[in-house]
Amino acid sequence: MSTAPRVVIVHRRTEYQELIARHGTRGQAAFFLRGRGRDIAELEERHERTTGAIAQVAAAVPVDWRRGVVERADVSRFLFAPDDVVVVVGQDGLVANAAKYLDGQPVIGIDPEPGRNAGTLVAHAPGDLPDLLRATGEVEERTMVQAQLDDGQRLLALNEIFIGHPGHQTARYELQPSGSGAEAQASSGVIVASGTGATGWCRSIALERGSGLRLPRPPEPRLVWFVREAWPSPATGTSMTEGELAGDELALTVQSDQLVAFGDGIESDALTLTWGQRLRIGRAPATLRLVR
């Protein structure tokens, strides 16, 4: 007899819950917000919408299916099964946070606050879930970015991976795109983005510098990379500041005491790179399988 599927609901604490946890009581949280010109009633309303959406999603899971619930802070420790269906209730960023811990499971993005979220990855309403659970084979593959150190450590990201100095000082390294020579550089860091990430931070960099590089659309398997504020000097160059990765890799060799690489803006989950280490960044073998 086959085991019933399991739906895993991924969510994060609301801003209201975080304030209560920090200040102890509603009254103290309200006092704190009043001093900053905000009203706690707004956060309570948003909290109710989010918790209501989570409850509606949970109620829509068929009674004979298994279910699990995991909060964002615990996603890295949660054991996802190969046949899970992952339902993310929250903002687009929560999908990105969960994606790097998955291995091909279908993901359904539920928007608890329509009109407030961008809704690129959380494109569905809670009431859509019953139909979506019957359509988990209809997915859109989203390319992910992978960074791998020469010691075997690996980092995955859905939007982008950033490599730079942990103190936001000048990063020094040697950069080598596939099929090209290497160049020593000093810069504010390097960003490698997917088609999903090309609508955010990557796009702002391209617009700022007036780049002619064609950015990938969300479903495209291409990656693009940019060097931020490369500094010319007798020892460092600026001839390699952007490019495309279509199946190949970008190599970076550290030439300073320490750099870090982190994905999707999560600095707490970073690789630490020391002098002489080599990092290879390219397309990840795994993809996000987003139910559409």
Structure summary:
By secondary structure, the chain is of the alpha+beta class. It is 21% helix and 34% strand.
Give a structural overview.
It comes from Saccharopolyspora antimicrobica. Keywords: Kinase, Transferase. One of its GO terms (molecular function) is NAD+ kinase activity. There is one protein chain. The chain is of the alpha+beta class and 292 residues long. The protein has 2 domains: 6-137, Rossmann fold; 143-285, Tumour Suppressor Smad4, CATH 2.60.200. It contains 6 helices and 16 strands. It has helices at residues 15-23, 26-34, 40-60, 92-99, 129-133, 201-209; strands at 6-11, 66-71, 85-89, 106-110, 139-149, 154-157, 160-164, 171-177, 183-187, 189-193, 223-228, 242-245, 250-254, 258-263, 270-274, 278-291. The strands form 2 sheets. Strands 1, 2, 3, 4, 5, 6, 8, 9, 13 and 16 form a 10-stranded mixed β-sheet that branches. The mean pLDDT is 94.
Proportion in helices: 10-25%
State the CATH topology of the largest domain.
Tumour Suppressor Smad4
Strand content: 25-35%
What structural class should be given to the helix and strand makeup? alpha+beta
**Quantity of strands, as a count:** 16
Report the principal-axis shape. globular
Low-pLDDT segments, ≥5 res: none
Going by CATH, the architecture of the largest domain would be Sandwich
Q: What is the radius of gyration? A: 21 Å
Please, how many helices? 6
Mean pLDDT: 94
Total discrete domains: 2
Order of helix and strand elements from N to C terminus: EHHHEEHEHEEEEEEHEEEEEE
Distance between the termini: 30 Å
Largest sheet: 10 strands, mixed
Quickly name the level 1 CATH class of the largest domain: Mainly Beta
What is the CATH superfamily classification of the largest domain? Probable inorganic polyphosphate/atp-NAD kinase, domain 2
